[in-house]
Amino acid sequence: MNNSVEIKNLDLEFGAVKVLQNLNLEIGKGEFLVLLGSSGCGKSTLLNCIAGLLDVTAGQIHIKGNNVTWAEPSERGIGMVFQSYALYPQMTVEGNLSFGLKNAKLPKDEIAARIKRAAEILQIEPLLKRKPAALSGGQRQRVAIGRALVRDVDVFLFDEPLSNLDAKLRADLRVEIKRLHQNLQNTMIYVTHDQIEAMTLADRIAIMRGGKIMQLGSPDEIYGRPINKYVAGFIGSPSMNFLEGHLTGDTFEVGDVSIPMAGYDFANGGAANGAATLGIRPEHVVTGELVGNAPFQADVTVDLIEPMGSDTVVDCQFAGARFRLRMDGQARVTVGDTIRLGLDPSRASLFDKDTELRL
Amino acid sequence: MVDVTPDALAGPQGPKPRKTFSRRNIFLYGTLIMVALYYALPLYVMIITSMKGMPEIRLGNVFSPPVEITFAPWVKAWSEACTGLTCEGLSTGFWNSVRITIPSVIASIAIASVNGYALANWKFKGADAFFTILIFGAFIPYQVMLYPIVIMLREMGLYGSLSGLVIVHTIFGMPILTLLFRNYFTSLPEELFKAARVDGAGFWGIYFRIMLPMSVPIFTVAVILQVTGIWNDFLFGVVYTRPESYPMTVALNNIVNSTQGVKEYNVNMAATIITGLVPLTIYFVSGKLFVRGIAAGAVKG
Fold first, then answer.
1. How far apart are CA A198 and CA A219, in angstroms?
2. Are residues B158 and B255 in the same domain?
3. Could you say which of A55, A63, A170, A316 would form a disulfide bridge with A300 (CB–CB 3.0 to 4.6 Å)?
């Protein structure tokens, strides 16, 4: 059995609202899959279905080759970590970790051994006798991960586990989760709306929208070859620039500017014609000395600058639209300057204007 | 180092000075004191009257403190005052009330908390309809159901017994208590419930091990509501029991209203205070928890 989790033709309706529609997903053993989407896209709902906390309307869920569609959450071989930690407030950390094991009627020494191991992995040994109220946010989330860990399961489910933490702690715990996955090699399904978390953690990302998976692929694929305009705009910060124009053969015309598209890898093999949208990531716009090598160059006037230390985001008008580009943090620009920028069509994305699909 | 001398600061600094006898304070505290007096005065009159002898009461100085303090009216109210035929004072009624209140409180809270928990966390089929019917029950006037319940209790063979009254109190506590518990359990984070399910706890496991320990405030509120409500009940007590099992409120009424010879105001006052002591004690003991519990669950719809 190669797949750890398989979801087949899954439907979920709340009354008349279709939250998930005919969803199919196969997650390999040891894979780290991130479900990414804006709020209300059904990603948490999907996770709850996998966990067995919601009854599905149609379809099947298989975990480790067993059909668990009707199984109780505790019988599915999953551990779950929640956004709000969901630690039992009246129990100590040890009590929290052992609650599930006691329910499963495990022998005492086995429980003790598992708690010891989990506490070592997560470095929460000094906290075992404390109540959750006496822990910091990061410690609480670590205990919550520990509660999934002691269950000794194959599949870990994370429901936005880092969203309640402050930025620095989030970055630290993100690395810890990644390390945990490297060491344990469990299957992990991770729900988030944070694209940085998705990009850094995932083996594969599933971008969800309106109860469907828009694109499923490696972070590289999602970033480099977004399947449609929504995915292209969703991934990347600052987000992709879109220029509305017309594609004729190898040339993209927008206003009075024509950009040669030679070198662009068309999805259907050949070139296409018609109304189209050109997407260019701000970080793929070159400036300074590198402009000389770019196939297309233009002069723009700086409208606004956002210095971020490591780099500077510049706002300007290009071909009649707002255009953002990312420059090195060292670059000296001020509002009103004229700078020369260069575009490389091979790193751009083209979308059909009507279907919004990648050309 | 930057040198800043203290006197470099000029103008207003530090906490803003406040006048103790500002117009605002006088108005505020004046009103509060007036209202407090308005409520405290009857209690004061009751207490001093209950400690006066009858001759002193006949003088008519209602507000003057007792010249000779006597506790005889209290003793009489407790054990000798006449209620119609018998002269046993309030003591029988007190023990009847205890025997009614304790099982009613325990039963109604036990059932209602499980109801509320099921309604809040386990979305079973027909839950909404069940809840609507239950809440509707809270708005039906008691008088409408008075006689049908007499017939039901008679058919069950419980009419006139204490257990019959206990059942009535338990049922009538159900709508408001269920609402109270449902709202409280709904306010607890849903993820806790989910986590417990992933951890393999069942319906009762989650109720006893997760929900109950987190619900002390709301249980306190429920206990206060039920103890005071059932202790103070007069209507059900007088309708569904016989004279030998009358609760304290009915006994009090009979003492105060029985017109044999002179009206013993001091005994009546003492009897009234004794009857009110139980709810009063409950409020004093659990005041803080009560406020916390009300804030936690009762006011949210």
1. 8
2. yes
3. A316
